[in-house]
């Protein structure tokens, strides 16, 4: 903040600003019609203060004049100037602290996960005794609190290790982002290099100070690990050399074995127990096989000073089928399952969070039970329950309602569902999009009980129209099954008696929104008038 400009406590300063803000460019400042209206002007000042890059009221007032905020000030009928944000700000907000409902927030309490947390702690406590904890594999469906619980336990572990001065560290890696052996090892290497450098700097400070004191009087060395100033000197030289040698791993470009060796040396530089938390470990295996896990799991036999233990987290247990049997048995030394939450448990979780997130009395009684019930249907996903509650609150806020009602939750459920559909449809491969578009065309033209042959006929014509490869009917049937699995269409096999069996397909998603998403794809957008294709179906 600018030192010359006091920020608070000076009403005259505020008055002067009010005048300046209302004055058009170049004109002398004069009081605005609402300058006497305390409420509005107070808000004005708040807003302007928050605009200034340095937060200085004077500077802000100048800025406001410079950019001519007048342009974005809307005059209402009474001639009162209402800023773009005034109405939104004046509504009593429903939320006390919305951040608490976001996925990035790590809760301090995790109801209904005590058992799993205790299991983890029982295994990891060996790290605090300087022993190597067993590797742990944690699995359970999405939103069952795996990451939140694992992070909670690691924070506790690290803080206890500091309390008792035991060298124990946890490194968290999200394998959805860091998904190759190179990146995992590089990230770990760089973390430990950083820690080692910080350690060396601290040591050097200590030793240089000791050297200076010992040069005055050798008695300073009593009770230290050194018997002469020369020994201190030598230790300093060695540490300086170590510091020089430490070279961070670049994000690409080194051979993997060099990255591995760098990580190995960095982690073994000091005595410590390291827990490596690999979240979404299945993504790593899917993307780059089990080499990383193999290398990490055999490291302990070669490390001299340190020990590592792996904590893998996954929502898909099938990935272990792709592991080398040795890796599989080593990784799965201990397995902890996170079962889905039921509606009552979700209710508790939501209640805990909502106490902090919402203003008192902002939620009507049905809101939390309904959010919990919806999310329980979705395989007991706490993330979904929290999303629903937050979105319902946002919808209520947007609708200028004082409370969140059952209807807001229902709207939120539709909105989240639609967002999901849009995202799934948007990211479909082009061929699947064409198949889906064919189904939509048929439905839009009033065709019921659509069968695979009908979809295939339209599909072929659409492919010709946009110059896409035409797949076989068999492949198209497979794509329909995939769409079914994604919940976009519903395909049921029906028996046609002596004519065999066929699939009857219907759309499971809102037709207009889905069509709009498909047409926003530049390739499908080329299909201008699809009517003739559907007509052609009847000609076949
Ligand atoms: N018992 C609980 N108490 C409070 N909040 C919880 C609880 N369980 C989960 N949550 C919250 O639900 C959200 C999802 O949890 P988390 O990320 O831990 O799930 P996950 O099982 O790791 O899911 P994924 O496999 O998709 O990563 C987070 O915001 C988390 O804080």
TrEMBL record:
Residues 193-249 form a coiled coil. Residues 1-65 are annotated as: Disordered. The keyword Cell division applies. This is ORC1-type DNA replication protein. GO terms for molecular function: ATP binding. InterPro entries: AAA+_ATPase (IPR003593), AAA_16 (IPR041664), Cdc6_C (IPR015163), Cdc6_lid (IPR055237), ORC1/CDC6 (IPR050311), Orc1/Cdc6_arc (IPR014277), P-loop_NTPase (IPR027417), WH-like_DNA-bd_sf (IPR036388). Residues 436-518 form the Cdc6 C-terminal domain. It comes from Halopelagius inordinatus. ATP binds at residues 144-148, 341, 353.
């Amino acid at each position: 903040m600018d030192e010359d400009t006091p920020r608070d406590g000076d009403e005259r300063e505020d008055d002067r600003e009010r005048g300046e803000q209302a004055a058009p460019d170049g004109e002398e400042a004069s009081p605005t019609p609402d300058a006497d209206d305390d409420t509005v002007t107070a808000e004005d000042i708040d807003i302007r203060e928050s605009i200034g890059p340095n937060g200085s009221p004077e500077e802000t007032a100048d800025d406001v004049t410079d950019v001519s905020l007048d342009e974005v000030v809307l005059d209402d009928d009474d001639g009162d100037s209402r800023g773009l944000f005034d109405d939104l700000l004046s509504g009593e907000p429903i939320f006390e602290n919305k951040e608490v409902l976001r996925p990035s927030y790590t809760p301090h309490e995790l109801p209904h996960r005590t058992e799993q947390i205790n299991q983890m702690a029982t295994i990891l406590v060996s790290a605090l005794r300087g022993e190597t904890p067993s590797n742990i594999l944690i699995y359970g469906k999405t939103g069952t609190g795996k990451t939140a619980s694992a992070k909670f336990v690691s924070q506790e572990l690290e803080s206890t290790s500091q309390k008792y001065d035991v060298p124990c560290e946890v490194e968290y890696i999200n394998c959805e982002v860091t998904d190759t052996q190179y990146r995992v090892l590089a990230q770990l290497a760089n973390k430990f290099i950083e820690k080692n450098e910080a350690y060396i700097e601290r040591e050097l400070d200590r030793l240089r100070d000791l050297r200076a004191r010992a040069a005055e009087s050798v008695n300073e060395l009593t009770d230290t690990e050194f018997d002469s100033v020369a020994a201190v000197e030598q230790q300093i030289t060695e540490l300086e050399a170590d510091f020089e040698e430490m070279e961070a791993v670049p994000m690409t470009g080194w051979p993997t074995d060099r990255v591995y060796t760098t990580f190995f040396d960095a982690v073994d530089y000091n005595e410590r127990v390291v827990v490596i938390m690999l979240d979404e470990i299945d993504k790593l295996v899917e993307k780059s096989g089990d080499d990383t896990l193999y290398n990490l799991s055999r490291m302990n036999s070669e490390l001299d000073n340190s020990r590592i233990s792996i904590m893998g987290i996954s929502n898909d247990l099938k990935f272990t089928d792709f592991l080398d049997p040795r890796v599989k048995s080593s990784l799965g030394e201990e397995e902890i399952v996170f079962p889905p939450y039921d509606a009552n448990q979700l209710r508790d979780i939501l209640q805990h969070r909502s106490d902090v997130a919402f203003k008192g009395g902002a939620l009507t009684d049905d809101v939390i039970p309904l959010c919990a019930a919806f999310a329980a249907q979705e395989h007991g996903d706490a993330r979904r329950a929290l999303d629903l509650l937050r979105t319902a609150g946002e919808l209520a806020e947007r609708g200028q309602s004082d409370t969140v009602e059952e209807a807001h939750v229902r709207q939120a459920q539709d909105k989240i569902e639609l967002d999901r559909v849009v995202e799934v449809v948007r990211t479909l491969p082009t061929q699947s999009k064409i198949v889906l578009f064919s189904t939509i065309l048929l439905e839009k033209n009033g065709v019921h009980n659509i069968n695979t042959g009908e979809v295939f006929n339209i599909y072929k014509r659409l492919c010709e129209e946009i110059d896409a490869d035409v797949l076989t009917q068999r492949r198209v049937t497979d794509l329909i099954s995939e769409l079914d699995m994604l919940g976009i269409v519903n395909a049921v096999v029906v028996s046609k008696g002596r004519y065999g069996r066929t699939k009857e397909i219907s759309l499971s998603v809102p037709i207009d929104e889905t069509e709009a998403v498909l047409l926003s794809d530049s390739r499908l957008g080329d299909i201008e008038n699809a009517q003739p294709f559907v007509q052609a179906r009847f000609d076949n």
